[in-house]
């Protein structure tokens, strides 16, 4: 597509064609190309071929999981009831999707309109991340069709997961609402956009509350496991704070990573405003990240001191823990600081990648590797790995599909 | 209010003050954690020194609970040498709610056997972690489970400190949790001892009121000086359990986790639960305030700019 653009093609950004007639929805979906041109570009894209291969293997396995049950797709472990689907799909995806509420807060609440060009990407990253966390959950639940039971059939309000369920569900609808303007611009509907605009502050604040609570609650889930999770990763008093605080730089760093990828692979879709502002915004986000990283590092150390766990640091687990902290927290923190000082956005992008990997490592450690540290290491079944890859690929496909169409990284011209 | 557990951060300055301010609110949210079990609930005292590893209890449970036929017959003792998933000793599964494992202790003339099943905690982690309330602690002491509401999130399996609940992963349509229910619907409800207890030829297990069993255990330890370890496992562990154990070798040598502490699992979750009402009440005001402030600031700046 980038090449097409270089040759003078311009994707749909308004309701009317040059000759004054309206684009139909179908034409909008094809980005203003003729069907033949559209499919030709899709075929030429090597990335699509990779996706096709993943689907060829992964989709049958995914379908198999629902036909033959979890026992067929996983090791059916009684000791590790949660595997990759939740370890990766819930515990890693959700903090990396905290960008939605962070951007909403920055732009709508603190009135930092200078970040406006990144706001929608932040919101979209949030919405899709949560949506696919729920998809992962549905793959993992023994009886996914009972998903609404905790809401309407049998309530266990004193359980941490009850909170997660309710908050993720409510927050998903908040995020859908927050993205209605983008959709209604694209569809040419005026009313919904105006309505959302009138309640945007309320939406943003409920977004903050819900996010604080469910990001924290994901950590809270592990406070049930004092005897199973390694003490260095376990903290009764601080677990929720660790999870919440790290989701701040997790979400922002993921936003930097995604915006970088967009700039590389979907430049044709970005408008000048987005591209011109990107370095400035990236460095702004970097500032937020470095503050959150410092706070996180401090409360991580406080937690070790509070439970007096210094001794563990000298064990093998301690080395692993220190590696997680050094590579995933200290390194991005230092790099972010350098990037801000030298106004070097590329360096900030590298720091963001490290921070994202750091979050992933932390959540995987908590959910799988340092879990049951007294027992044995569980290596996921290949089918489980394949399903996780397939679902994640779908996440990327949907992400790309929306980015290419809705006014996320470009502004819609001429509302009517 | 019960004493806050040792891990809580009440010691810690400002954060501590905030926690004090909210414990009042939280006591309701975590009321389950202050529940010390029913006073007259029943229990079982297991004397490991008497067990000979005949596996009669396993067979009795299989029959009583209508479980599928075992892979190897119950009189096959090669199972004691089998290693399960992850190189662990045998563990309970969706097909067996209880089993006996052999432990060879250096210096002890005979191996020692340990029966494993749900311990029927006084404040069960499985119960407090379930978001559809599938578990019930009955007044007789059993922890039972209602499969008709279970979503299959398996948090209860994650939360149980003894690795008890198992899951019928093999079923695609109706997978459910499986675990020992202390023979609640067929026996305990009517005041009768569980099948495994009654079947044991060595009278390893004593069925009775939990508080009487504790006295009985203490008495036995006193009357046989030097025979037993001076500890009844389950009297206090994770808030106390209905099934309790006596042994003549230290408990960690027979596969018991001796680092679980005496706090019920839910007490570790309290710090988080305490923060929930705080966020719900303070956040909206706080952030609306921020919003107003930042807007005022901007308005002022604009005024300044237009003056100069
Ligand atoms: S042993 Fe585990 S499954 Fe049994 S009551 Fe206690 S927490 Fe629940
Ligand atoms: S698996 Fe079922 S019983 Fe266990 S916590 Fe989830 S819903 Fe409750
Ligand atoms: S109490 Fe009943 S269900 Fe539990 S192990 Fe014994 S026989 Fe089986």
UniProtKB/TrEMBL annotation, chain A:
Chief location bin: membrane
Entry GO CC: plasma membrane
Q: How does it sit in the membrane?
A: Multi-pass membrane protein
What keywords would UniProt list here? Cell membrane, Membrane, Transmembrane, Transmembrane helix
Which Gene Ontology BP terms does the record give?
anaerobic respiration
* Ranges that cross the membrane: 49-73, 85-110, 122-139, 151-174, 195-217, 237-258, 278-299, 319-338, 350-373, 385-403
- Where in or outside the cell is it found? Cell membrane
Q: What is this protein called?
A: Polysulfide reductase
Q: Which organism is it from?
A: Candidatus Desulfobia pelagia
Top-level taxonomy: Bacteria, Pseudomonadati, Thermodesulfobacteriota, Desulfobulbia, Desulfobulbales
From TrEMBL, chain B:
Q: Where in the cell is it found?
A: Cell envelope
One GO cellular component term of this record is:
cell envelope
A single Gene Ontology molecular function, please?
A: metal ion binding
Q: Does the keyword Iron apply?
A: yes
Q: Where is the signal peptide?
A: none
Tell me the SUPFAM superfamilies matching this sequence: 4Fe-4S ferredoxins
How is the subunit organization of this protein annotated in UniProt?
Heterodimer of a large and a small subunit.
- What protein am I looking at? 4Fe-4S dicluster domain-containing protein
């Amino acid at each position: 597509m980038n090449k097409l653009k270089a040759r003078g093609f311009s994707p749909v950004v308004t309701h009317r064609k040059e000759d004054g007639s309206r684009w139909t929805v179908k034409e909008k979906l094809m980005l203003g190309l003729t069907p033949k041109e559209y499919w030709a570009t899709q075929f030429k894209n090597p990335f699509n071929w990779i996706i096709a291969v993943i689907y060829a293997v992964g989709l049958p396995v995914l379908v198999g999981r629902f036909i033959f049950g979890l026992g067929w797709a996983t090791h059916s472990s009684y000791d590790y009831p949660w595997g990759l689907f939740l370890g990766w799909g819930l515990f890693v995806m959700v903090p990396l999707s905290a960008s939605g509420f962070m951007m909403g807060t920055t732009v709508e609440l603190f009135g930092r309109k200078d970040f406006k060009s990144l706001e929608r990407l932040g919101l979209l990253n949030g919405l899709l991340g949560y949506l696919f966390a729920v998809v992962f959950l549905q793959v993992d639940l023994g009886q996914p069709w009972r998903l609404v039971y905790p809401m309407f059939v049998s309530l266990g309000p004193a359980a941490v997961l009850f909170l997660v369920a309710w908050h993720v569900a409510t927050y998903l609808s908040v995020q859908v609402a927050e993205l209605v303007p983008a959709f209604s611009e694209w569809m040419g509907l005026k009313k919904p956009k105006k309505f959302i605009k009138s309640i945007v502050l309320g939406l943003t604040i409920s977004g903050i509350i819900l996010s604080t609570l469910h990001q924290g609650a994901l950590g809270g889930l592990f406070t049930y496991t004092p005897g199973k999770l390694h003490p260095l990763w376990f903290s009764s008093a601080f677990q929720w704070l660790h999870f919440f605080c790290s989701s701040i730089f997790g979400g922002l760093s993921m936003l930097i990573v995604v915006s970088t990828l967009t700039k590389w692979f979907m430049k044709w879709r970005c408008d000048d405003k987005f591209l011109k502002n990107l370095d400035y915004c990236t460095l702004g986000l970097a500032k937020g990240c470095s503050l959150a990283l410092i706070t996180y590092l401090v409360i991580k150390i406080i937690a070790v001191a509070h439970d007096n766990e210094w001794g563990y640091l000298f064990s093998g687990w301690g080395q692993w823990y220190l590696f997680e902290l050094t590579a995933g927290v200290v390194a991005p923190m230092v790099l972010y600081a350098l990037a801000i000082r030298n106004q070097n956005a590329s360096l900030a992008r590298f720091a963001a990648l490290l921070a994202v990997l750091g979050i992933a490592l932390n959540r995987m450690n908590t959910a799988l590797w340092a879990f049951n540290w007294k027992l044995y290491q569980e290596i996921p079944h290949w089918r489980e790995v394949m399903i996780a890859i397939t679902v994640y690929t779908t996440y990327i496909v949907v992400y790309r599909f929306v980015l290419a169409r809705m006014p996320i990284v470009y502004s819609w011209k001429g509302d009517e | 209010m019960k004493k806050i557990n040792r891990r809580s951060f009440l010691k810690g300055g400002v954060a501590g003050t905030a926690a004090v301010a909210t414990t009042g609110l939280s006591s309701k949210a975590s009321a389950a954690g202050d529940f010390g079990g029913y006073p007259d609930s029943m229990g079982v005292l297991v004397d490991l020194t008497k067990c000979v590893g005949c596996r009669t209890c396993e067979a009795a449970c299989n029959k009583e609970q209508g479980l599928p036929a075992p892979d190897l017959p119950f009189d096959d003792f090669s199972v004691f040498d089998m290693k399960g998933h992850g190189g662990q000793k045998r563990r309970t599964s969706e097909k067996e709610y209880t089993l006996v494992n052999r432990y060879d202790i250096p210096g002890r003339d005979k191996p020692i056997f340990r029966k494993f099943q749900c311990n029927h905690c006084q404040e069960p982690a499985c119960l407090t972690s379930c978001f559809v309330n599938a578990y019930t602690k009955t007044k007789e002491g059993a922890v039972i489970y209602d499969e008709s509401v279970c979503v299959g999130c398996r948090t209860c399996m994650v939360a149980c400190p003894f690795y008890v609940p198992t899951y019928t992963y093999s079923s695609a349509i109706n997978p459910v949790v499986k675990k020992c229910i202390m023979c609640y619907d067929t026996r305990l409800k009517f005041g009768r001892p569980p099948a495994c207890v009654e079947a044991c030829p060595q009278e390893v297990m004593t069925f009775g009121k939990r508080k009487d069993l504790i006295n009985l255990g203490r008495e036995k330890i006193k009357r046989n000086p030097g025979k037993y370890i001076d500890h009844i496992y389950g009297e206090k562990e994770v808030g106390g359990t209905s099934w309790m154990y006596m042994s003549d070798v230290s408990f960690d040598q027979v596969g018991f986790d001796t680092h679980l502490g005496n706090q019920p699992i839910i007490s570790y979750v309290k710090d988080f639960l305490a923060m929930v009402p705080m966020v719900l009440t303070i956040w909206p005001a706080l952030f609306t305030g921020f919003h107003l402030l930042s807007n005022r600031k901007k308005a002022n700046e604009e005024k300044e700019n237009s003056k100069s």
